[in-house]
Amino acid sequence: MTRPLDGNGGVRVRIANENLWKQFHKHTTEMIVTKSGRKLFPKVEFQLEGLQPDANYALVLHIERVDDTRYKFTNGEWVAAGRADPRTPARPIHHQDGISQSGKAWMRGVVCFDRVKLTNSSQDVQLYSMHKYRPVLHVYRINDTVPYSPSSMYQQMQSQLVPVTFVSDPIMDFIAVTAYQNQNVIKLKIQHNPFAKGFREGAERKRSLSDSPSSSPSPSSKRLPRGITNGEVSTFPRYESSALMRSTSGALAPMAPYALPTPNWSYPMWNPSAYMFAPMINPLNPYHFPIQPPYYAPQPCHGKSI
């Protein structure tokens, strides 16, 4: 709500996206804090009216802690869980367009603090998880009788700032968390935040897996072995030339790899499992036996090599 100061009742400030904040407030808004910083959603947006067009104003945002209570999420709701950590001074946040602008410039459209990042480190807006916070906007009029530089820092302009009004509304309260707790808040983030792509894709993936009859992936297509052609299964792999079966210069024929051995159906007691891991005959060299069966005795060759 807007609270005018020092008789500046003509200045009015309202939350531009108030309806969206109300939807989240019904379920207790949650905001993620990370070490690198995470932006707020819903965004902090205001609409200003009643400012003097030619006067210069400064807008300063603070993320203030609401109470001294630590919270926890249990049974679908947030409840008090003890005393909070010691408070830290609220760091002033200036608008990205500049510390000071004319009243006409501030009233031109929606003033959005969309570059604010929440973090649990001291490098940015530092918050403690499981604590409740509220964005508060302070409006100051810059005293024209005191020389000032628009690019000067906020600390150097303290003597030039005259408080006009500030906005502190409970519907903007949120609890800082490292991971979302309430499923209703997650649904609202997915529904309204265009950058919640990760949550949206994750929900669609879970839904598709639950709708499918089996959650196991379909087997990938594999290339058929060389010995399988036109629906026919050959006992041995096909070779382009019978010359591979002949030895040259006294050397044996090239040996086929043992990765995918072709079964020899001539053995009456063939063991598929044993043959798979330890093939007994190399098709290209019948006299090579890694494991010789007890019932097989190779006969010596008395002829000449072909």
From TrEMBL:
Principal subcellular localisation of the protein: nucleus
Species name: Toxocara canis
GO MF term list: DNA-binding transcription factor activity, RNA polymerase II-specific; RNA polymerase II cis-regulatory region sequence-specific DNA binding
Signal peptide from the UniProt entry: none
Any one annotated GO CC term: chromatin
Subcellular locations according to the entry: Nucleus
Residue span of region Disordered: 201-233
Protein name as annotated: T-box transcription factor tbx-8
Keyword Heme carried by entry: no
Annotated Low complexity bias: 210-222
